[in-house]
Amino acid sequence: MTYDINLADNQAVQVGLVWSPDQASGSQLRGYFIEVLFDGEKIWTMPNNYPPRLTVEAMKTGYIRVIDAFWVKNGIRIISAELGDRVEAHVVVKAFNGQFYGGVKIKIKKDIPLAPDEDFAEADFNIILEEGQETDLTVVFRPDEPSSSRLRGYFIEVLVGGQGTWTMVDDYPPRLTVARPRAGIPVVIDAFWIKDGVKVVSVNLGDRTEAHVTIQASGGNVEGIIRVKIRKDIAFAPDEDFVEKVFEVRLGEGQTVELVIEFRPNQRSGTFFRGLFIEVELITWNQHWTMPDEYPPRLRIY
To answer: What is the dihedral sign for C-alpha 96, 101, 102, 106?
Structure first.
C-alpha cells in the first residue's frame, strides 16, 4: 500500500495495510514482516525476531459427525409410517476440531433381507461449519413399498467426502417400518339442497338447484367410486331415477369431500309425485345410503 504524507517536524501519522496470509509458517516460510520505503528507498525493516515478526498457523481441518438422525411426519418424530406418506429424513451433523467445508450425500435406502440393500432416494449438500456448529440436513420422500418378508424397512446412509460413510444402526427403531394404509369406509355425514348459495327445503319448477352430499373417511383411508342419484319420490309405485353422477374419491382418514350435482326440477310435487330425494351408492364398498323419508330433508317442488 502506498501513502502520500505531509508531516511537520515531530508530527506522526499511523498508516496500515489489511491483508490475509496465503501460506502457513513451515519449512518453506518462517513468517511475515513489515518493510517501509520512502521515495523508493528502504528506510526501516522489522527486526528479525519472532515476535515482532508474524508466524501463521495452518488452518485446522475439521471433520463432521452425525449426532442425530430421525424421521418426521407432519412435524412429529415417528418410527413408522404408512405407504405413500410424506416423510422427512433428518440428519444432524456437527463440526469438530476446526472448520469443515465439503460435500455430504444423504441416501434413503431399502433394507432388503438376504440381498443387497437398494438405494431409494438421495440428496447432495455442500456445507460450511465452524468448529462446534451443527446443521440439520433433510431429505423428503414417500415410501413406495410396505414392510414385508421382502423389505424390512428404510434406513439412512451418510457419505462425507474424504471421511467415509455413516450408516443408521440396524435396529427398528431407529430404522423406519412402513405399513399399508388402513382401509376405511366412506360415511355420509350430511346431504342437503342449495339454491342461489342458500340451503333450501323447497324450490320452484325449473329452478337451478344443487344437491350436496358430504362424505367422510372413517377408520382409515378411502379410495373408490361413489354414485350420487337424485330420485323422484313416487307414491304407490316404484321411485324413479332423475339425475345421477359418478365420483372417484380418495380421502385420508378423517378427511371430507363434498359431492355436488346440479339439476332443474321438471315436475311439481302433488298426489303421486311427492318430491325429490338423494341416494348414494358406495359402489366400491357395496353399500348405499338413502335420504330419510321425510320433508324436509327431501325436496318439494312448487
So the answer is: positive
- Cell numbers describing residue 250: 380418495
- pLDDT, tens digit, for every residue of 239-296? 999 999 999 999 988 999 999 999 999 999 999 999 999 999 999 999 999 999 999 9
The b-or-e profile of 219-234 (16+ CB within 10 A means b, else e) is ebbbebebebbbbbbe
Q: What is the mean pLDDT of the chain?
A: 94
The model's pTM: 0.56
CATH code, 185-301 = 2.60.40.10
DSSP symbol at 75: T
Output the nine-digit C-alpha cell for 143: 415410501
When computed from its CA atoms, the radius of gyration of the chain, rounded to whole angstroms, is: 38
Question: What are the residue ranges spanned by the domains of the chain?
Answer: 1-58, 63-179, 185-301
Residues whose CB is less than 8 angstroms from the CB of residue 121 and which lie 6 or more positions away in sequence, other chains included: 107, 108, 139, 141
